[in-house]
Amino acid sequence: MELRQLRHFLALFEERSITRAAKRELIVQSGLSNSLQALERELGTPLYVRGTRPVRLTAAGEALVGPARRTLASAAQAEQAVQHTRDVLIGTLRLGVSLSAQHLVPFASYLGEFTRDHPGIDLRLQYGPALTMISMVETGELDCVIGPAVSQVPGVRMTRLAGEPLHFVCRADHRLAERAEVNVRQLAGERFVEVPPGWTARLLSDAAFAGEGIPRRVVCEVGDWELFLELVSAGVGIGFAPVGLRYPVLTAPESVLRLIAVEGVRLERHIYLMLPSAGETSPAARRFADQLLHIHPMGS
């Protein structure tokens, strides 16, 4: 069994197409098919169902995905470790980021400095719900994450970088717009705009209402904070948003939105640097984490 065969297999799994997988691996389709067939012969079982679109793995193929990822990750770490001894860092840093945390942790500038110091490193950035990115660290699909979390995660090393409260957001003509503070009970019966389940802000707001035993109606879910604020501004509903967001719909002089503190519940999101256990951290992630924490002290 060769590493390239496992790489071809994972390309097929992720792309769900022989054509796209071959294009991604920069080989002809027949070459990819031959590589997969050789892998199947070595394992003594088919790994995917022929003739299906999109390509569907067999039970054996599904079972191979996790070990294949771990094997390739270990091989990459071995290569990077050798290079590291020569004081030359090469390879790929797969980083999950929360785009709405850029004002708290300016990771774009940090990555710029890191890649200038280590030009042999390529970056692969992903963003998504917090729980999804944390899961990808646990499975080895991401090397590290800069993003929010509501609690410590077993097996993941978490260093707090920053935090900010969530405030109630509404239009200036809302009945509570002139209040200095509001509480959850005052929001019973309202229409809510929300971010999707799995986002930290949603986990916090759901927990706040559940803790008070108050049901609520979410009339709109949207996975983008700027559009979220636009929808509240348009009167679709009310919601909760991080106070540090800097979108024009909120900060412009003509904005009709109001941010109001929430009393009686703890609505605060914390941004963490998240890494796998020490033995599973890649040299690139380890060096990036060291540099980040030197520039951006814990909890600052």
Description of the molecule:
There is one protein chain. The chain is built from 10 helices and 12 strands. It is an alpha/beta fold and 300 residues long. Strands 3, 4, 5, 6, 7, 10, 11 and 12 form an 8-stranded mixed sheet that branches. It has a two-stranded antiparallel ribbon with strand order 1-2. The protein has a two-stranded parallel ribbon with strand order 8-9. Strand 1 (48-49) and strand 2 form a beta hairpin. Helix 1 (3-15) crosses helix 3, helix 1 (3-15) crosses helix 4 (59-85) and helix 2 (18-25) packs across helix 3 (29-43). It is globular, with a radius of gyration of 23 Å.
Q: How many structural domains can be distinguished in the coordinates?
A: 3
CATH level-1 class of the largest domain: Alpha Beta
**Percent range of helical residues:** 40-55%
Main sheet: strands, sense, barrel: 8 strands, mixed
Question: Total number of β-strand segments?
Answer: 12
Look at the structure and give the mean pLDDT.
91
* Assigned CATH architecture of the largest domain: 3-Layer(aba) Sandwich
- Estimate the global geometry from the Cα principal axes: globular
Offer a few descriptive terms.
D-Maltodextrin-Binding Protein, domain 2, 12 strands, alpha/beta, transcription, Arc Repressor Mutant, subunit A, globular, LysR_HTH_N, 3 domains, two-stranded antiparallel ribbon, LysR family transcriptional regulator, 300 residues, 24% strand, WH-like_DNA-bd_sf, eight-stranded mixed sheet
